[in-house]
Amino acid sequence: xxxxxxxxxxxxxxxxxxxxxxxxxxxxxxxxxxxxxxxxxxxxxxxxxxxxxxxxxxxxxxxxxxxxxxxxxxxxxxxxxxxxxxxxxxxxxxxxxxxxxxxxxxxxxxxxxxxxxxxxxxxxxxxxxxxxxxxxxxxxxxxxxxxxxxxxxxxxxxxxxxxxxxxxxxxxxxxxxxxxxxxxxxxxxxxxxx
Amino acid sequence: xxxxxxxxxxxxxxxxxxxxxxxxxxxxxxxxxxxxxxxxxxxxxxxxxxxxxxxxxxxxxxxxxxxxxxxxxxxxxxxxxxxxxxxxxxxxxxxxxxxxxxxxxxxxxxxxxxxxxxxxxxxxxxxxxxxxxxxxxxxxxxxxxxxxxxxxxxxxxxxxxxxxxxxxxxxxxxxxxxxxxxxxxxxxxxxxxxxxxxxxxxxxxxxxxxxxxxxxxxxxxxxxxxxxxxxxxxxxxxxxxxxxxxxxxxxxxxxxxxxxxxxxxxxxxxxxxxxxxxxxxxxxxxxxxxxxxxxxxxxxxxxxxxxxxxxxxxxxxxxxxxxxxxxxxxxxxxxxxxxxxxxxxxxxxxxxxxxxxxxxxxxxxxxxxxxxxxxxxxxxxxxxxxxxxxxxxxxxxxxxxxxxxxxxxxxxxxxxxxxxxxxxxxxxxxxxxxxxxxxxxxxxxxxxxxxxxxxxxxxxxxxxxxxxxxxxxxxxxxxxxxxxxxxxxxxxxxxxxxxxxxxxxxxxxxxxxxxxxxxxxxxxxxxxxxxxxxxxxxxxxxxxxxxxx
Lengths: 194, 549
Prior knowledge:
The structure holds 2 protein chains of 2 kinds.
Chain A: H1 3-17, H2 24-36, H3 48-61, H4 70-73, H5 75-84, H6 91-108, H7 120-130, H8 134-148, H9 160-165
Helix pairs in contact in A: 1-2, 2-3, 5-8, 6-7, 6-8
Chain B: E1 12-17, H1 21-32, E2 37-40, H2 55-60, E3 73-76, E4 84-85, H3 98-101, H4 116-120, H5 135-150, H6 177-188, E5 194-195, H7 234-240, E6 244-247, E7 251-257, E8 263-269, E9 275-285, H8 291-298, E10 326-330, E11 345-347, E12 363-368, H9 373-379, H10 390-399, E13 403-410, E14 419-427, E15 433-438, H11 443-463, E16 467-470, E17 509-511, H12 526-545
Parallel strand pairs in B: 1-2, 1-9, 2-6, 3-15, 9-17
Antiparallel strand pairs in B: 3-4, 5-11, 7-8, 8-9, 10-13, 10-16, 11-12, 12-13, 14-15
């Protein structure tokens, strides 16, 4: 069993349940350390260096300031699964996109291509530099799916994304579903349509 | 239940190509009448246990639809452009076809839909024409479809609908929040909202469960068998006769013709991509408004150099698009529209075309929510919201449960230069030509969209929306309603088939699906595809019994 992966996933979910979660870069740093500490790299495709950058970018696309974000959801694992399987034809796009990201990092932090040396504002500056590229469009889609997609792809850990938006994945519901189909909230008091 | 396994060398009575909305009806009607039927279906034979609520698999990846990686589609706006690979069209690709993953809207056409050319006159740049049949000719078959398949609705609630011989077999769906607000606002505006007619069971019916409101209708297969696809309704009836074999993963590449111009059967690739020839007395093509045409064009021969049944030159022409605008409104309280069937209330007040507006066209409007979680965050938000970052996250978090959509279903004029042809260079994974779509919107269709958008906005405001946003007229998106490429008519020079789907050129060849449509009505083609299939099957049975096929 790849201990490092499980520690990270369950650790981050536990953190996500705290009222005040750690700042996103802390998660990113922890995640990157867990990934790169040498034993049992759990990824199907991603290399640790790319993973470190991607987890930091994901944490700016869906941040954790107001509750669990891409980091706690394990969106990085969704990206990994996507590139290992159904989106394997997007690997080159990621490679070239990450090169552009590296160049943007070097401009902000001369002599370094490491995202961890950047402040959060600088990380957002990196995203602004690439946000109109095809790479970013795909990354954004992957991060959103890693936050709100089916659990099968290893993102949306603990259903944190679904909880955040108020989605409930039960198989059956009974009315009222919401406010307006509740006859108690009918301004005419008739419940006319029910 | 034992289903027969015919040998390809057996000359069966009918081979049906495509097991979708029309093909499933054909399979049942022909086999119940005593004929031996083989149904060849491109896609797999899935069951409810194969489905899931995986948004990625069914709304982004082609879980139940044509896969552009193995069957590329190319698209261009006009003949002047070279076509590029774009998934311009989408169709259900399994036993049950699009009836498996459709939303379930089941609107009958209005009486006027069958003779709009007479009512409206010619439209420049379009081939508006009357149908070769009237609503009253089709009414018994709409009723038959509603009872065979299991359709819910409220008879008489839509004042614009033609007369019906029977009420719906199932009571209407209760309004969810979108329907409640829409109904209240529409009445305030003097409009006539009615419960959506749906291919969704509101009570148990014919051994199938009622809907449990899971919310995963559109784009998904129904685990409860509450969605009235042909897969769970008429196809089991066909198989129960012992005379119908459904043969999945059978991709037809050619219909064969003898020296006398009669068809003799179909050649298909089996699951091992081996070519098999299934002999049949009659061939019925029900492969949808794009794939049927592709097959006819691939089946050219010395007798039919421009494609089978294409003496008129109209096979592949007059492709009509799935037009409509999705507009969103943000509301104060959670509506939780992700629960329950997408659509519960509809209006047809803006359905009829009116020359006084200065353009041809009209639309129905329904209240719904058209998103699943990730799709909403990716493409459901207002344009002024950042696409990433904390505000992005907070917005989709707040909006997801509070957004309600109005979708218009608008006319698409038949235009001769909007076509399905075989791509001259691109091929699919079987080595067959890719489908090439050439399409651009007629100016009246854009004008209709601009006009109906205003009506949608008025209703959203009357519903109390705090903020509104959504589609603009003339935008491009994938079409799922594939209509018009083998139009029906009385004159063989101006149409491909007669009103029973029989090819004018070939006595024992029928084409029965959305390709037969002469006009688009106001989208929602499934009820009419199936009513036409029942009527065509009824005619085939009578002809076959008289020895005329």
